[in-house]
## 1
Amino acid sequence: MTAGAALDVVELAAGVVLAGAVLALWRKDLRALISVLALQGAALASLAAVLAVGDGDVGLGVVAGVVLVTKGLVIPGLLTRVVRADPGSRETAPLVNVPASLVAAAVLVVLSYLVAGRLTALFPDPLTRLVPLGLATVLVGVFVLVTRRKAVSQIVGLLLVDNGVALVAFLLTAGVPLLVELGTSLDVLLVVVVLQVLATTMRARFGHVDLDQLRELHD
Amino acid sequence: MSTTAYLVGLGAAGAAALLGAILPARRRLFGAALLSAAACLAALAGAGRVLVSGHPFSLHTAQVLPLTGVDLSLDPLGALFVATTAVVGLAAACYSVGYGAHATPSRTATAALPAFLATLLLVPAAASVATFMVAWELMALTSLLALLTEHRRRPETRDAAQWYAAMTHVGAAAILLGLVLLATHAGGQTFSAIAAHRGRRSVPLTSAVFVLTLLGFASKAGAVPLHVWLPRAHPEAPSPISALMSGAMVNLGIYGILRVGEDLLGGGQLWWWLLVAALGVVSAVFGALHAAASTDTKRLLAYSTVDNVGLVLVGVGAAGALAAGGERLLAGLVLLAALFHLVNHALFKGCLFLGAGALQHAAGTRDLDRLGGLARKMPATAVLFAVGALSISALPGLNGFASEWLLLQGLLHGFASHSATTEAALLSGVAALAITGGLTATAFVKALGVGFLGQPRTEGARGAREVGPSMLAGMALLAGGCVVLGVVPGVALPVLDRAAAAGLPGGAPSALRVGLGLDLASLHGAIEPVLLVTGLLAGILVIWGALRLAPRHAELRRPRRAEAWGCGRELQTARMEITATSFAEPLQRVFADVLRPDHDLEVTHAAESRYFPEAISFHQRVDDAIERVAYGPVIAAVAWWGRLARRVPNGSVHRYLAFGFAALVLILVVLA
Amino acid sequence: MTATFADVATLSAASPGLWARAGASVLQVAAVAAGGPLLLGLMGKVRARAEGRIGPPITQGLWDLRKLLRKEAIRAEHTSAVAALAPLVLVASAALAAAVTPLVTTGPVVAGGADVFVVVYLLLMGSVALALGGLDAGTAFGGMGSSRAMTIGAISEPALLVGILALAVQAHTSNLPGIVAASLAHPGWLASPQRLLALAALVVVVIAETGRIPVDNPSTHLELTMIHEAMILEYAGSDLALVTVGEAMRLGLLLGLVANLFFPWGVEGSGGGLAILIGLVVLGAKTATLAALIALVEVSTAKLRLFRVPELLAGGFVLAVVAVTTGLVAR
């Protein structure tokens, strides 16, 4: 694969990750959110794979495989099980309505371009220049965490943040040490499993998984 | 030659004010209007000569103002504003003959228009801090006077005047502070001396000067959040005055920003211009949203002024930012586009305000919900208003499109500058243009469609008659300008080029090729509106002709008139037509977070059963959310302070004298 | 990106004479005028087949036009000249836009008008004309339709212009032949993220502007849910024929524009009858594919409530903003 074509793939994958974050704000159907995550996982994996082929780095190739399995298959699969237990579940009433969230996302994207643009100007490198996209993904993910009510949406927000961080890591260092990547992947997996258990228990207790209702526990 | 013409114009405007005050009642109106028109023509000749030749003039006289004297100078930038004012003033003067004719106009009313006009012509030529501030304050005073002329008939005018007076004086104080601060750190108080001192001032000082003056100029231009006076004052003023306020006075706010920021301070910091662009983006979107939701014709036009001033500020800010980054060609292009839009805005908004005055004159109301069907009662007004409305909606072939296209081109090519912050500003600018474009079209389809089409909704609208020839002539002048600059925008380019070059320190190379259309020579991009208009008219004629001639049966050639179908309803009354309020309802609901409308629904039920409502009343107000949120606390605080201060005076003359004496002693102590 | 300017310069130098270009423009207008109704027919056919029906023939739209032209035009008694002018302006503006857009060839007759913003504002002109026409008869439904159509137009404009900006920034010009030439010179752009994001944004806009499901249901018979149809309720006979053909032309034009901006292959640049013929066939194939895809989406989605439409269009707007930013980052 030529360097130019490899860069094209990396750019495309980074764009897909950010577009996925926007889609996660756009759609209310929880199943759609999960397919967005799967798409992001695949994009990250292909990005890592292209970098691995380009550098001849076997460790990175393994990381790509791990990313594909955890982020692309296992986590979406687990979340699908949570959602399937609660058919027709939608993010019905987010704290900030969808058009306003989308406009906020536009502002966040421009903001991360401004901020990260300053940093990447220090290392003018084809990969480093894409860092704003990863930062924007992180910001949008936090926005999802802040404004969405359902437990599953919260998990999705968390995973968006994680994907954004992974994207930034791949772009900045062109290869996270294998151990670190494995560690974070397993951490995230663990968090998802815990949240899944929590959500299931919540449903068994309260009959829903609307986190806003947890406030009642405080009173 | 240009000096003489300009001074004659200034003198004639002053004389017109005098004539308006002293002539007997019957001749007053005509005499003042005639002389005002002559003044505008003379000033136009003077400014036009400066613009065409590119040679500025300047003069100094020690006689008029003590201590400092008066400095006047007209460079191409100032001349552009004088020329724009003169054109709008000419139309307004012409229009005022018919507008004031229905009742004997008071002396003040007749004198106010020429006096206001004279100060508007004076400000862009002021060439020293003292002269500028005197001219600026005179403009504030005369415009306040002009605004108040109808206060006996409409008490709301007083409220508007209070807002205007407060805002304009706070603004003037800020400008004064900024300019004095600047003058004390420069070799003198004339603009040329200050400009010669450009490079030798510290950044904190120049930044303070810029922010202070920006505060004042932006409030005069009507930029959000300093716009609150505008949607009150413009609707309440008599229509010729509204036209002058929207078409000439707000421009001078832009002029001030350019004169101080670029000319006197020499461009300065990048963040100044990003601030200007941000003000522009917010103003454009906020103004366009309120215009789309308004149902009062003149309030709609006033908010649309906020919108267009915002677009001009986007251009000015982008130009400043590009110039600060060293992109002279692009900066010149964007500034040219902004100035072009400013001139175009003066033309179509002047025309629209005069048209709104004609509506009020003929139908007795400016409320769109009470108009309707006026196209058949007053066809000439309808056509002229339509030209203005379609121009401001940026339809190809009219001037609004030419300048918006140029502004879009400037912003697009500015992306070559490779500065992240500038690029973010440019992107926000394009987004603002895009958001306002559709909203403006909606607002003016509403004004045109609900006001002029359909059936009359009230007796007033049913009894409307076409207005007189002088009013039509005033509107036609400005509408004609819209068409000419729309079809052959290239004719204005040499003049605008000189003004834009004078607006940037060190000048700017021209990005445009001279021709009838607009052609960005090296940047690649061109439009040729003449061909577009020809093509459009040819298309309409061909289709119309084909439909008229082709059918074999005679009855197919002419459409038949019948009762409106309305999905088979038997009765169609004007009560069933859509109103301006309902037309704006979907947009208002979409943007409810910004507009925050208040609804009030009262249903009274019949005594016998709750299932039968006896009467339903629905009230809706869309107040200015910024006014409520930002100005409410300030007003409350001032009122509290006022109540506190009221305890001090108790009626004793000795106490008052003691206060004066104490103040004098305090000042002496400070000085010592 | 200096190559872009050079490409365009050679392109305009090689473009044929005025009469040939005028002929090409007329051909494009004719192609859009005939192709628009056919595309609508195709979309109807695809929907019918997907729903297990046979459906009317693809040429049904043309037959309907013929029928309408043989009927008497009736206008409401209170209408002004606007009701008569609106259909004419709609068709003329769409035809002009079709004449200047490089659909079949890059050398349109109004060389100075081949700007993407000109096309956008010409389409706006048609929308404004129709909305004014809807208000002219003074009926309840007409005004309601105008209000809704203008609202949707207003909120789709940001996505449209910023989406176009993403392409124009990439090509360093908003000149349509320039964008097409630049895309031809850089095949890698097709898969670039900013292009794909801008494409997504523009498809959302095309669906909204042409009044397709999920924004508007073109085949509804219930006035209260109508948007576009409510606006044109008062038209009959040749007036209705003009409005119908105008709307079909706008659909064809928008699809052709999107097809040629994103998949520019087959647009004829140098002149010559055979090349133009090939361009025509390729254009037909591209737009037919897009139309069929939109029809398939229509089958599987439900119409959105009017006040959910802003969500859709806000999404388009954000995709466009992300497209521009990605373009700046990946430059």
## 2
Amino acid sequence: MIVITHQRDKCIGCNYCIELAPDRWAMSKKDGKCTLIGGKDRKGFYTVHATDDELEANKEAAKVCPVKIIHVKQI
Amino acid sequence: MKDRKIELMAPAGNFESLTAAIQAGADSVYFGVEQLNMRARASINFTLDDLEEIAKRCGENNVKTYLTLNTIIYDHDLSIVKTLVNRVKEAGISAIIASDQAVINYASSQGVEVHISTQLNVTNIETVKFYSHFADVMVTSRELSLRQVKKITEAIEKEDVRGPRGELVEIEIFGHGALCMAVSGKCYLSLHTANSSANRGACIQNCRRTYKVVDLEDGHELEIDNEYIMSPKDLCTIDILDKVLDSGISVLKIEGRGRAPEYVYTTIQCYREAIDAINAGTYDKDKVDDWMQRLSSVYNRGFWNGYYLGQKMGEWHDTDNSIATQKKVFLGKGVHYFPKTSIGEFKIESHSLKKGDKILITGQTTGVMEMEIDQMMVNDEFVEEAKKGDNVTWKTPDRIRPSDKLYKIVKTEEKGKLPVQV
């Protein structure tokens, strides 16, 4: 299992995470920021549990995020 | 020189800087909200809900307000662009500074005044004519010389180029602040090295770092005197401001939405005095020396006149970050203000404060207040020094507030001598 965290309010809507992990990320047309699909909001930090097969793509997404607000952890 | 009113435009990254700009005599302010502005990476940015408050505070002081919406825009941004433009209209913000045609087109269709950002690199009269269908004010490219700017302003008059308002198009140029090592907005270093696009307001400033040049064939490092080979000095025009104004511009813009409120205060105050001095015919070398000294006291990377006088090569910065002659050290926060006696109470949370120290108080409503301590009290007794943990009071020139921050101003070289905190 992995945990993905997203500090959404700092997102600048660059779209890279979607390019790298399109199954887990989607762009909100409402505010132009990225949304972590399935993410639950805890004081601005969105978190979701996912299976290991999503690890690589989301690690890449975390790596390229220009504002470093994506974190992926294996549990 | 033609007698025309010059608008002095100040950067505002937050409410503290906004208040400082108003206090220092700015005619207008520019600022960004949310993520679609060239300082999106900055930790503090205004939000959409701040627009009304910004319009209110500035309106009360007759200061115009401009929202920067000048990043490149993707399809997924179009909806937030519309929301921003609509909110600008509702809140009564004076205009939008735009570079993407999507923003220009929508704002103009909604009757919101548009200004053309320097990101569009306007460098000739034909481009001015093109954008005059949408915009009343245009920022020319920062790489133009004053002679080139003057040619454009003269052509606007001669060819009667008018914007949507029906008035002659106004030209705005940068007067002071950081410069880009590339033609503004045409740099992809940050994107290539860190995926962090300067054109989405997330520049990581590769150019401000030190570099080595290595011969890949034999591994020799080339000797270069200045390792900061890409970091331009900051633009400063206060010593040539008469020539700058003579180029026929209408708006003088100061860079620095990422800078501290006292930077905004000092810079705007100096340029305000300089513009007024030129209008009054009292602009002279002594005054310039004084302004230069004050400008050097706040964050800077060394000054040069930019490309305005037509130098072919840039001038490069050769030290680490700022060479400001003074720095601020955080001391503590405001506690209470006693209006009848004009006494402010502060709690010292760090370092110590001595009689004779220069201090700086900043706050969202207070703006910037600078003063020297000539008398202060701790526990109802006059003291020479207030230490960490003390609640100290003294007479302040204006009201202070509990959210205000208190700093001590120290000379840069003395900073290392500050007592270590235990």
